[in-house]
């Protein structure tokens, strides 16, 4: 029997967080593949449309929102840990993840909303919208420098070991290096690559970190 059941859609960044966390802990996940254009199954299970949704097969507890799912996984299967053992470091890791979710995602989300899900045509933007895209792109690229600095002398965002900061950030930052894979038409991922792109020459430590985390097991 699987340790947990998780609803997913293809190429979902937030689902990949759960796959990385479960892989780290050696958990068996029963994946429920959902048609991105037909969310009835997710809605019936959780009362909302977004994935990931995790279900505890024993208790039937349903958890939505990837940060909550990750916290639940850590509580239920504490070893190997995703959070640093030192309480102060663990608190800082939480601050990082909160900021990543609440602040870092802002610019690419705003750019994707302006460009629209299909058209992706910057030519039809007003001057003010185009300036907003430029500003948000600069913000995103500016923050890349901070990740590069953070990785000076350490292999992972939380410190020496792989942990919750890597799980939280990798599924998004990877698009800066790699670009969306074939079949991934999500405009948000395209924005991450076009406006937050980097390579081994511009950001060697960040690029090496993407390659390193890509080797991690995923459930
Ligand atoms: N805060 C939620 C966001 C979940 C979310 O936005 N999921 C995306 C996939 S990564 C989704 O289901 N989007 C709806 C859609 O693509 O139609 C989390 O972290 O799990």
Helix-residue proportion = 40-55%
In whole angstroms, the N-to-C terminal distance is 14 Å
Number of strands: 4
Q: Tell me the major beta sheet.
A: 4 strands, mixed
Number of helices: 9
Model regions low in confidence, pLDDT < 50 over at least 5 residues:
none
- The Cα radius of gyration reads 18 Å
The CATH topology annotation of the largest domain reads as Glutathione S-transferase Yfyf (Class Pi), Chain A, domain 2
Using the alpha-carbon principal axes, give the shape. globular
What's the number of domains? 2
CATH architecture of the largest domain: Up-down Bundle
Bound molecules: glutathione
CATH class (first level) name of the largest domain: Mainly Alpha
Computed structural class? alpha+beta
Protein name: Glutathione S-transferase
Organism: Patulibacter medicamentivorans
GO cellular component, one term: cytoplasm
Domain GST N-terminal: 2-81
Explained architecture:
- With about 220 residues, this protein is α+β, with helices and mostly antiparallel strands.
- It folds into two domains: about 5-75, Glutaredoxin, CATH 3.40.30.10; about 85-215, Glutathione S-transferase Yfyf (Class Pi), Chain A, domain 2.
- Helix content is about 55%, strand content about 5%.
- Helix 1 packs across helix 7 (about 165-180), helix 4 (about 85-105) runs parallel beside helix 7 (about 165-180) and helix 7 packs across helix 9.
- It is globular, with a radius of gyration of 18 Å.
- The two termini are about 15 Å apart.
- Bound molecules: glutathione (GSH).
- It comes from Patulibacter medicamentivorans.
- This is Glutathione S-transferase.
């Amino acid at each position: 029997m699987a340790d947990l059941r998780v609803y997913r859609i293809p190429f979902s960044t937030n689902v990949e967080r759960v796959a990385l966390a479960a892989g780290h802990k050696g958990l068996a996940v029963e994946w429920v593949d959902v048609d991105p254009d037909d969310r009835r199954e997710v809605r019936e299970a959780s009362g909302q449309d977004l994935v990931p949704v995790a279900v505890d097969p024993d208790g039937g507890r349903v958890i939505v929102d990837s940060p909550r799912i990750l916290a639940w996984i850590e509580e239920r299967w504490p070893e190997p840990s995703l959070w640093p053992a030192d309480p102060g470091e663990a608190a800082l890791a939480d601050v990082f993840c909160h900021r990543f979710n609440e602040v870092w995602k802002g610019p690419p989300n705003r750019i994707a909303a302006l460009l629209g899900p299909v058209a992706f045509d910057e030519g039809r933007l007003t001057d003010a919208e185009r300036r907003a895209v430029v500003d948000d792109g600069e913000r995103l690229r500016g923050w890349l420098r901070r990740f590069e600095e953070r990785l000076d002398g350490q292999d992972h965002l939380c410190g020496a070991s792989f942990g919750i900061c890597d799980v939280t950030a990798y599924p998004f930052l990877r698009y800066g290096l790699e670009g969306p894979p074939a079949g991934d038409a999500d405009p948000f991922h395209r924005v991450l690559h076009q406006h937050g792109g980097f390579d081994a020459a511009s950001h060697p430590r960040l690029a090496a970190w993407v390659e390193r985390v890509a080797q991690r097991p995923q459930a």
